[in-house]
Design a protein that fits this description.
Blueprint lengths: L5 H6 L12 H4 L13 H6 L3 E3 L14 E6 L6 E6 H5 L9 E3 L3 H12 L22 H5 L6 H13 L2 H14 L10 H10 L11 H24 L5 E9 L5 E10 L5 E7 L9 H14 L6 E6 L3 H14 L3 H4 E3 L1 H14 L6 H8 L7 H9 L16 H8 L17 H10 L1 H14 L1 H14 L18 H11 L1 H17 L17 H25 L16 H15 L3 E5 L5 E5 L6 H22 L5 H8 L5 H9 L3 H5 L2 H17 L20 H13 L3 H15 L6 H7 L6 H5 L1 H12 L1 H11 L6 H13 L9 H13 L16 E7 L11 E7 L11 H5 L4 E5 L13 H6 L19 E5 L7 H19 L11 H18 L22
Parallel strand pairs: 5-8, 8-9
Antiparallel strand pairs: 1-2, 2-3, 3-4, 5-6, 6-7, 10-11, 12-13, 12-15, 14-15
Keywords: Metal-binding, Nucleus, Zinc, Zinc-finger
Subcellular location: Nucleus
GO molecular function: protein dimerization activity; zinc ion binding
């Protein structure tokens, strides 16, 4: 059916869905049949032996609506024939010209085509159809336009010229790849009808097929590699990498390789460079080969930064191979994915390891419920390296003896807390204790739909006004899933208990036989077990906050999508401090008013449970401390030092809480390493003149919680420690200033909330001017990814594409589809971390004379809508011609430097009466940011046009006839613009698009934005 007439729609059933359509013959089933009452006696006389054989169930082919189905009884066996209705009604003499055997469809189709100009529906062009359900609307009908009216003619012409089929294909491809949709979606008849209905300018043949889109994908991917290569080569920072292997459920293996860097305009980028298929084992050598090939393909051998990887052993081997090939220190360049090892610490806390020696662990940690702070710090600091031999847990205290003797009996479904702590007992408690029960409840809900409905019904009964939520299951590969499961269970605790009551009541009503007792009833948690769940959830809560902070949000415009590397060190310190307090039975929580307060963990708990929970905490601390000892790379400390709001002060505050950090001379070691890197690589490097473009953004995040938590913890430190820290600060402040590094470190930290969240903004706005060489070193360390979360996000996206229904999709197509959204259009339309967002305005950076030798005279950038530039005044000429330009100085400003002159900006500020610019805009201007005060997009060609118009006005001033007031109006500028634009289109035919200053092919008026 290719029409939607109201009469037909009312009398015929809806067409079958495309999934049920089996062939072309049934796809265009006839909506009418010939009138068989036309067969009168005289008609039958012309066809002796013929009888009517009309059967709608068998007449499914489209041409049955144009002919009669008759049976020829003269032959054996009898034949079914098709008789053309039109020829029959015209009483054509030669019946052989319009009578065909029904099985010979080719003759019937040729007859209809030649004699009656009727073609199959599949070959018909979709024409305009009236009615609300039309597949395509004609522009004339939709607009009620008159083609003889010149105004309507102009309107129709403009509408047709504004639609570009090539752009439509690119948008379709972008939509399909971004949402991981199948390419053959565009072949759907319903999808094509939707496009044709929504766009009357679109013709059906302009809708691409799936093969066309795949070819377009290949072309766009190859086109994007060039701009990406240029962007990487011109990056301000080193190129840092994250990579990891992954296997889909259809056993398709890939290696995701991401690059992290800051470009020349201080935008943070994350680009998926490659997603090669892994056809061999995921060995370190195989991973290294693919990564090395990608690095060489983009020419990054001399720009390699740091690698942020998880703790898999094949990554260790890969780093050894890469270090040997590209000649770098593998230990220095290896950064450990923070959320990954935080999750390993939690896993060690919750599930331990077969290698854990509980006797040794217990002997060395002691069994005091309450210890002095000095003793606790000493034991915590020396725990792993100085193992003792005395098992203090062997002789409980008198209070604990009494508590153990008077403990109530446990129910048959409750797993008792072990009295003797060993691997076997602890493993049993983990499987059948409170968290084992929660895990089993989740498995039961997933496997049994009736139990799941019971859970939903229990939520509706216990909390009618609250939303019904699904169960959250803990998974070993999902970061902090144990905390998520505990949080959801505590939130729906009443519903869980009610669900188990419903199940038990149903079992009792059905006879209550023990052999029929539902297995899930064994997972009923006692009051004490719920206390354990709540306590462990409180212990795990800071790990969740830290993981979310260090893995980033993955959203463009939100700082780094992989987390801020400067937060890495203090987050680990915060978690160590958290566990060291927790083992004493105290944690620091934040209340609803964001005020930190101490909370006691073990209140109302028996001695056995306290002892076991301490073992949990100590196992987590042991694993976390093991990884803490592996953070030997200078980069971890350098990122904190080069944060303008932190510097050494933050590290001193952290280390001041544990004397072992101070006596190990960590600061002296790291200071020496920083100085060595500075002198070897950055101190004497050639640098570019600072060019700042965007103001710092202000935002609040989980970092606020971490800083408040650390600040509260510092308030608990002994006064003598604070005095030592104060003395160290005074001593460090008196260091002689020798170079940029010494000068930067000698200054106190910056107190600015905007730069606290975005330290790179300070180096862009301030540091690049005051410390030009040091700014490169700072950015190199601050742009390191603190996690490999982006690679995990790539794999999640890839998993949504490689579904069971698309298992035959070739791997290189998968790779191109995943890479293209993050590579296409670089640098104008790729996915910058802090690039153009819906809340940003396009502006132009106009560079001063000193920078034009290294940069283009002007370049496109973006600013936020609340940037201070929009509060500045509009100079006279732009104001009079109604192109409201505003200006903001962003570079160096010095009256002693002639290279800071900026003639373009001077001309744009000339006075309409005198022809002179104000003194402040005549010389030593520096680099300037230009935007439109109305916050519309400013194109480079428009800025050039206004500048040259001001130059033209200056020429008229030079003629000695005074101010050319006739030029100070919009109409005069529009007339001049038409001539100037026409001339430039002949001379300058760039290919970079509308933001290329030399591409004037499609430039429109500045008033059309």
């Amino acid at each position: 059916m290719d029409s939607f007439d109201e009469e037909d729609a009312a009398s015929t059933p809806p067409p079958p869905s495309e999934l049920s359509t089996s062939s072309a013959s049934t796809k265009y089933a006839p909506s009418r049949f010939p009138d068989y009452e036309a067969w009168t006696i005289d008609k039958f006389e012309r066809f002796p032996g013929f009888t009517i054989c009309h059967d709608p169930s068998r007449e499914r082919t489209w041409w049955w609506q144009f002919g009669f189905r008759m049976k020829d009884n003269r032959s054996q066996p009898h034949k079914i024939v098709w008789i053309c209705e039109r020829c029959f009604l015209r009483n054509r003499l030669k019946t052989t010209h319009y009578v065909f055997i029904a099985s010979t469809a080719g003759g019937i189709v040729r007859h209809l085509s030649r004699e009656h100009k009727v073609v199959p529906p599949s070959r018909q062009r979709t024409g305009p159809v009236s009615g609300n359900g039309g597949a395509q609307r004609n522009l004339l009908d939709m607009l009620h336009a008159d083609p003889t009216n010149p105004r309507d003619q102009s309107l129709l012409s403009n509408l047709h010229s504004l639609f570009d089929p090539a752009v439509n294909q690119l948008l379709l491809l972008d939509w399909l790849t971004y949402h991981n949709l199948p390419f053959n979606l565009v072949n759907s008849e319903r999808f094509r009808r939707l496009l044709l209905y929504n766009n009357p300018s679109l013709q059906e043949e302009q809708i691409p097929s799936d093969r066309t889109l795949v070819n377009l994908l290949t072309n766009e991917y190859n086109r994007a590699r060039g701009p990406v290569h240029v962007l990487l080569q011109k990056a301000r920072s080193m190129i840092h990498f994250t990579f990891d292997g992954w296997t889909s459920r259809q056993n398709a293996s890939f290696l995701g390789i991401n690059a992290h860097f800051v470009d020349r305009d201080w935008k943070q980028w994350r680009i998926l460079l490659a997603l090669p298929a892994l056809r061999n084992r995921h060995t370190g050598a195989a991973l290294a080969d693919e990564v090395a090939d990608t690095i060489c393909a983009f020419g990054l051998q001399d720009r390699i930064g740091y690698y942020t990887l998880d703790n898999a052993t094949n990554n260790d081997t890969a780093m050894e191979a890469l270090a040997a090939e590209f000649d770098f220190d593998k230990d220095e360049r290896r950064i450990r994915c923070a959320p990954h090892f935080l999750n390993l610490a939690v896993r060690a806390m919750m599930y331990g390891s077969k290698r854990d020696n509980f006797d040794e662990l217990l002997a060395h940690w002691g069994d005091k419920d309450f210890m002095t702070e000095e003793d606790e710090q000493r034991q915590l600091s020396d725990a792993i390296n100085e193992l003792g031999t005395d098992d203090d847990f062997g002789t409980p205290s008198m209070e604990e003896d009494l508590e153990l003797e008077t403990a109530p009996e446990q129910s048959q479904d409750q797993c008792q807390v072990p009295e003797i702590i060993n691997a076997e007992k602890v493993d049993k408690y983990r499987k059948f204790g409170p968290f084992g029960k929660l895990h089993n409840i989740g498995i039961a809900l997933r496997m049994n739909s009736q139990l799941l409905e019971d859970f939903y019904e229990a939520q509706r009964q216990t909390a009618p006004t609250e939303p019904v939520l699904a169960w959250v299951q803990n998974v070993c590969t999902r970061w902090q899933s144990d905390e998520a499961m505990a949080s959801r269970a505590l939130l729906k605790r009443s519903a869980v208990n009610r669900m188990l009551s419903i199940i038990e009541e149903r079992w009792v009503s059905q006879g209550g036989k023990e052999q029929d007792r539902p297995a899930i009833l064994k997972e009923n948690l006692s009051l004490e077990e719920w206390k354990v769940v709540a306590t462990v959830q409180k212990i795990l809560q800071p790990f969740k906050v830290a993981s979310k902070q260090l893995q980033g949000e993955g959203i463009s415009g939100k700082r780094s999508t992989s987390g801020g590397f400067d937060e890495y060190f203090q987050v680990v310190e915060m978690l160590l401090d958290h566990l060291e307090l927790a083992v004493q039975g105290v944690i620091i929580e934040e209340n609803d008013d964001h005020i930190m307060e101490e909370v006691h963990l073990f209140d109302d708990m028996d001695a056995k449970t306290r002892k076991l929970l301490k073992i949990y905490i100590k196992l987590g601390w042991k694993k976390l401390n093991d990884y803490y000892g592996k953070l030997t790379s200078t980069a971890y400390v350098a990122a904190v030092v080069f944060h303008p709001c932190k510097k050494w002060r933050t590290l001193e505050q952290l280390w001041n809480q544990l004397p072992s950090r101070q006596t190990s001379e960590w600061r002296k070691t790291y200071e020496g390493n920083l100085t060595r890197v500075w002198e070897e690589k950055y101190k004497d490097m050639a640098h570019e003149v600072a060019c700042n473009a965007v103001s710092a953004s202000e935002s609040n995040s989980a970092l606020d919680y971490i800083e408040r938590r650390l600040a509260f913890s510092r308030s608990l430190v002994r006064p003598d420690s604070q005095e030592r820290q104060s003395k160290r600060r005074k001593q460090s402040a008196t260091l002689p200033v020798q170079d940029e590094l010494d000068q930067y470190l000698s200054e106190p930290p910056v107190d600015n909330i905007a730069y606290k969240v975005d330290p790179i903004a300070w180096w862009r706005d301030v540091g690049a001017v005051r410390f030009p060489r040091l700014s490169y070193m700072a950015v190199d360390f601050l742009t390191i990814a603190s996690s490999s979360a982006e690679t995990e996000r790539d794999f999640s996206s890839c998993g949504r594409m490689v579904t069971p229904l698309r298992c035959r999709l070739r791997r290189h197509i998968v790779a191109m589809a995943q890479c293209l959204p993050l590579q296409s259009g670089a640098p104008a339309t790729a996915d910058p971390v802090t690039g153009s967002t819906p809340g940003s305005i396009q502006a132009i950076t106009v560079r001063c004379d000193g920078e034009r030798a290294r940069f283009t005279p002007w370049s496109v950038t973006s600013v936020k809508a609340d940037h201070p530039i929009f509060s500045n005044f509009v100079p006279p000429i732009p104001r009079l011609i109604e192109v409201p330009l505003v200006f903001h100085r962003v570079g160096s400003q010095s009256a002693d430097r002639a290279d800071l002159d900026n003639q373009v900006i001077t001309y744009l500020h000339i006075d309409s009466e005198s022809g002179f610019a104000p003194p402040s805009w005549q010389s030593h201007i520096g680099t300037v940011l230009v935007a439109r005060k109305d916050q519309k997009t400013l194109r480079p060609q428009h800025l050039e046009g206004v500048w040259m118009y001001c130059d033209h006005i200056l020429d008229l001033f030079g003629d000695g006839e005074g101010a050319p007031t006739h030029m100070y109006r919009r109409q005069a500028f529009e007339e001049w613009w038409k001539d100037y634009c026409k001339e430039q289109k002949k001379l300058r035919r760039g290919t970079g698009g509308e933001n290329d200053p030399d591409d004037w092919r499609a430039v429109q008026s500045p008033y059309v934005t």
